[in-house]
């Protein structure tokens, strides 16, 4: 078993493979045929992506093993990387280390939820010093975390859940956000991220959150909109989606309050620089 601050790259269990079969059409036969077909499609395309099975599964699982859909997702990723080249080109963990280690704005829970999904919290209020960390830097950190998450078969199959915590948000935080940043984040989540985003929960939103939501709302598509939930300070509403047994005391859960954060998680990213370099090579030929 991997430690609490390690990527879980263990092969899917029989139980997990059954989930993959029911939700993603994954069987040994379907998987083998889809990998072979996606390799052919890639070779005939203008895209430059690694074609080993482990890498192709990152794109085939969220697209339910339809090779044409996986290729389309790859194209979206290549277009996104091209559009935001100034921000993402050759992005390495060391480039976002301060966001993780010094500011602790993003935290991945060491436990999964009741459905085996990865849980992550993003602090957009009192923990965010807008004079030291920009909207762009937060996005670069989120993009780096994605590179880690896609390595986990369990996360590929079960997906991820994000909690946005706005506790202590003030006008300074609102002014630090932009329409372009909102569009970039939602384009990434909805079109250019090969992860199954199962739910996005907003908690501790103050009254001025309406100003923030007005930036994001125009770019939210129907599929994601159905997976967004607004709870305010009512953690009981959050518990309707994620039972208390899977949440820390910070969110009304029965687990101990969080005593770890990005500082503990950051070394994980440094362990996978070879994969990140491989990921960074993806794009157009």
UniProtKB/TrEMBL annotation:
CRAL-TRIO domain boundaries: 96-259
Matches recorded under InterPro entries: CRAL-TRIO_dom, CRAL-TRIO_dom_sf, CRAL/TRIO_N_dom, CRAL/TRIO_N_dom_sf
MF terms (GO), sorted A to Z: phosphatidylinositol bisphosphate binding
A GO cellular component annotation in the UniProt record: membrane
SMART domains given in the database record: CRAL_TRIO_N, SEC14
Bilayer-spanning residue ranges: none
Top-level taxon: Eukaryota
Identification of the protein by name: CRAL-TRIO domain-containing protein
Originating organism: Anopheles dirus
């Amino acid at each position: 078993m991997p430690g609490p601050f390690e990527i879980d790259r263990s092969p899917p269990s029989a139980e997990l493979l059954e989930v993959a079969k029911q939700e993603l059409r994954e069987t040994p036969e379907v998987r083998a045929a889809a990998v072979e077909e996606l390799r052919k499609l890639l070779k005939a395309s203008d895209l430059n992506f690694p074609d080993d099975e482990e890498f192709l599964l990152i794109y085939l699982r969220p697209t339910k093993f339809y090779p044409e859909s996986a290729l389309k997702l790859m194209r979206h990723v290549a277009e996104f990387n091209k559009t935001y080249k100034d921000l993402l080109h050759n992005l390495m963990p060391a480039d976002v280390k301060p966001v993780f280690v010094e500011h602790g704005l993003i935290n991945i829970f060491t436990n999964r939820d009741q459905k085996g999904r990865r849980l992550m919290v993003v602090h957009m209020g009192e923990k965010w010093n807008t004079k030291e960390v920009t909207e762009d830097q937060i996005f670069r950190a989120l993009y780096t975390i994605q590179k880690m998450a896609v390595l986990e078969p369990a996360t590929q199959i079960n997906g991820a859940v994000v909690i946005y915590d706005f506790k202590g948000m003030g006008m300074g935080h609102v002014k630090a956000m932009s329409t372009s940043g909102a569009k970039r984040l939602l384009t990434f989540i909805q079109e250019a991220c090969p992860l199954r985003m199962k739910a996005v929960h907003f908690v501790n939103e103050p009254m001025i959150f309406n100003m923030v939501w007005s930036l994001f709302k125009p770019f939210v598509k129907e599929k994601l909109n159905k997976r967004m939930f607004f709870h305010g300070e009512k953690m009981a509403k959050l518990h309707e989606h994620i039972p208390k047994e899977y949440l820390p005391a910070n969110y009304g859960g029965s687990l101990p309050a969080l005593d770890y954060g990005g500082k503990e998680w950051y070394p994980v990213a440094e362990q996978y620089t070879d994969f990140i370099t491989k990921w960074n090579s993806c794009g157009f030929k």
